[in-house]
Amino acid sequence: MEVDAILSGVEKTADAIREQLDVLDTVREKAYKLSREIVRASSITIKHMHRNEVDEARGQLGATAALVAEMQEALADASQLSRGGFVADAEKEYVEAAIVIACMAGDEVPDHATLGVCGAVWLNGLAEVVGELRRHVLDLIRMGEPERAEGFLAAMEDIHQIIMSFDYPDAITLGLRRRSDAARGMVERTRGDLTNALRQASLEKRLGQLEERL
Length: 214
Prior knowledge:
Blueprint: H1 3-6, H2 10-50, H3 54-74, H4 85-105, H5 112-115, H6 119-142, H7 146-164, H8 170-173, H9 176-213
Helix pairs in contact: 2-3, 2-4, 3-4, 4-6, 6-7, 6-9, 7-9
């Protein structure tokens, strides 16, 4: 068989594939830019919550949700780009911000359908919340309010128990096991920090009562 016959149609096929990949590359660039904006916006949302700026955090979350929707729309015809990688990372940050608001403001935690993400992304975002709750617990300890922190430690423990129960391969859970291990360590350290703070507060209270009697 002649070489020309063997390669007949190859260049045409290659050109068609190149056109498809050009489109995918353009979509990826747009989605990647949006993903970076989502990560930044989610970080700002969480900072507002740590500053007790709840209204600002909710407003920022709304803007972040719009960016997530725009990114997902851009990827609607590029399913090979829409799972894992920078897309899942951006969605995870958005989920984390939404759940941090719910936990710290006493709202109902939004589920994955409400946030428009897949279950694995939602679970990873939930896992990341443990770190932000630890930060909040430490802030309360520094402010001399360790009793208020007990509820947030309980939330951290509950989250860890939930994510630990998902014993599936990383290819399915997008690396949840690693975040579960990290969450366990944060829960244990926070429990120790809070226990020490509560003991100190109790001791100071007893000393104060003793001084009053004297």
